[in-house]
Amino acid sequence: MAEYVKYVDVTRCDGCKACMVACKNWNDLPAEVTAFQGSAQSHPKTSADTWNVLQYVEHENGKGDLEYLFRHSSCFHCDTAACEKVCPESAISYSKFGSVVIDHDKCVGCGYCVQNCPFEVISLKTYKDKNGKEYKKSQKCTMCTDRLEEGLQPACVTTCHTDAMQFGKKDEMLARAEKRLREVKDRFPNANIYNPEGVGGTHTIYLLAEKPSVYGLPENPKIPTSAVVWKDYAQPIGKMMLGATTMALVGAFITNNMISKRTQGHEDGGDSHE
To answer: CA-to-CA distance for 118 and 115, rounded, in angstroms?
Structure first.
């Protein structure tokens, strides 16, 4: 199946926040009271109840002029996701569209995904069961996978009135990004396409007007070594060892039973001979 990506062109964004409202509405996310940010930005970053944030950056360009840079910030849906690698319950997986999704029935709220996400877009939400006991679950943007399954586009994409966000096949979106990059280079000399290879590429790609660090993004994000060791080495070896240990215990149990029965048989036979 073809890979799909969400393409975000920040040079077209006018900061209207319609994407935030659409996300809240579609995913039935509650309003969140936040402290004043000192600018037009309403939330400091994504959270368990706010899966995408319209980021405002005050930036002095190469000409010495002050300008606002906008960025729709949400989960990047990495092709090789650190959150998926570190989840001990296999609660995080890839959909057929390339989106990274969390199975809340399996999630135990350990927070490993939160700690290892290179983009800091995952948060834990606290719930209470019928007895009042608190428990936690990981929350983040799903790229509206439920909408994709019905042939629809992500809610944030459909509401963007400037075409700053588009969704489609990976090759087509990358081609549009490359074309747009050539068009804006005169105005934004540092413009670049942000699709970091350190996480295998992403399913949310950006055309940025400035270097990633200007937006608070890592220049070259990578999957933590600990995550790779855990998922690709420790877990498989652990499972094999667990399997070997289990087989050994079963074998010992069977052997002990056989020996016990033989011993019992000899004892019974000896008694009848006497």
So the answer is: 8
How do 100-102 and 134-139 pair as beta strands? unpaired
Per-residue pLDDT of the chain (274 residues; tens, 9 = 90+): 578 999 999 999 999 999 999 999 999 999 998 887 777 788 999 999 999 999 999 998 878 888 889 999 999 999 999 999 999 999 999 999 999 999 999 999 999 999 999 999 999 999 999 999 999 999 999 999 999 999 999 999 999 999 999 999 999 999 999 999 999 999 999 999 999 999 999 999 999 999 999 999 999 999 877 676 656 555 556 555 545 454 444 444 444 544 454 455 545 555 444 4
Asked if 15 and 54 count as a contact pair (C-beta separation under 8 A), the reply is: yes
Per the DSSP assignment, residues forming a β-bridge with 43 are none
| Whole-number Å distance between alpha carbons of 252 and 258 | 10
Instruction: Point out the annotated binding site.
Output: 13, 16, 19, 23, 75, 78, 83, 87, 107, 110, 113, 117, 141, 144, 156, 160
Annotated binding site for [4Fe-4S] cluster: 13, 16, 19, 23, 75, 78, 83, 87, 107, 110, 113, 117, 141, 144, 156, 160
- Rounded CA-CA distance 173/199 in Å is 19
Q: Which helix (H) or strand (E) holds 249?
A: helix 235-273
pTM of the model: 0.82
